[in-house]
Amino acid sequence: MSIDRAEVIVTSPDRNFVTLKLTTADGVTGLGDATLNGRELAVVSYLKDHVVPLLIGRDESRIEDTWQFLYRGAYWRRGPVTMAAIAAVDMALWDIKGKTANMPVYQLLGGASRRGLLAYGHASGKTLDELFDSIRSHQEQGYRAIRVQTGVPGLKSIYGIASNATYEANKGVRYDHEPAQRGALPHEEDWDTRSYLRHIPTVFEAVRNEFGPELPLLHDAHHRLTPIQAARLGKSLEPYDLFWLEDCTPAENQEALRLVRRHTTTPLAIGEIFNTVWDYQQIIREQLIDYVRSAVTHTGGITHLKKVLDYASQYQIKSGMHGPTDISPVGMAAAMHLGLAIHNFGIQEYMKHGEKTDAVFEQSFTWQDGYLHPGDRPGLGVELDVDGAGRYPYVQAYLPYNRLHDGTVHDW
Ligand code: CS2
Ligand code: MG
């Protein structure tokens, strides 16, 4: 058999998504997610202008060979655009292989290692009352683990909390899940580390007092702290027994985590902006993290992320795959198949997509009693309504950026 057609489909039901659809000469189709939030069209061009011409006529069964061909053959390696494009091809080929073998992809990856995937949801609030309501509503939705993000006194807007602009745009419906805001230019947000470091421990103290010691709680520092500030935060949160503290400091300099590790035993999760195993080499080898946060969509697909997680398993480091709304239903399905098969699964992030998105992407996964399961349909278990997708053309959207009080650009 061979790949007969390759289409790059851009749609924007609730937000922008980029999907690669491959069709074999026998009419078997495969989908891959190539969504890179705020830079979607760069991946569209990489796929359309450079990768698609290379796929037509290729043997779709040779997944590893195609991966190596696209990675080494490009000469220019790594990086978010390249690895999202390769990821989409990889996912689509696994989807086709599953359909051809009449098996769900997790069976091709070695079968199920558990009955379901523990998932966490995003609770948030500007105030403690709002936050408590949000935690309760997530518990009612079945979540057994919850990420906590709150407003910080003195800051107008902060990651994970609906900004006023989002409120107005969504007419009062709390929609704090989508950080990329539609518009011609990115929104500027403000940041102050010292107010944040003073405030966050008081929030977790209040949450533990209200909800007790058992509930697994997670927090995302979203790359904003220096290593010593991250060490201080990790230490100040130890009494509240976090499941993990995420992206506590930018990790381009992997050594930065040594300083954090030296001062705190709060578990650390990093990697959602990483793209290859090489971004993890030192922090895994030196046991500087506890959870690998990469998504299939941004780390070269199932083929490459499985290698990262197999490497991590030697150091008892677990998966904590990135799963916000900017990972499409196809990318989420791929994460669930991989998560079900690997031994060192930790937890899966699960933000629910919007209704329009669920109408365009027909999905077979289940969410029950706090656990996800990819379903047993052959392949990845997602089909895309191409006509429906066509009704929602791309809309320019950007992630916000931060400036400190003195005007300096800061990590968002
Ligand atoms: C976040 C994301 O879910 C998370 O952990 O870090 O919401 C992130 O901000 C977005 O994926 C960026 O596109
Ligand atoms: Mg994050």
Automatic annotation (TrEMBL):
One of its GO terms (molecular function) is mannonate dehydratase activity. One of its GO terms (biological process) is amino acid catabolic process. It comes from the Bacteria. Residues 128-267 form the Mandelate racemase/muconate lactonizing enzyme C-terminal domain. Pfam families: MR_MLE_C, MR_MLE_N. InterPro entries: D-mannonate_dehydratase-like, DgoD-like, Enolase-like_C_sf, Enolase-like_N, Enolase_C-like, Mandel_Rmase/mucon_lact_enz_CS, Mandelate_racemase_C, Mandelate_racemase_N_dom. This is D-mannonate dehydratase. It comes from Allonocardiopsis opalescens.
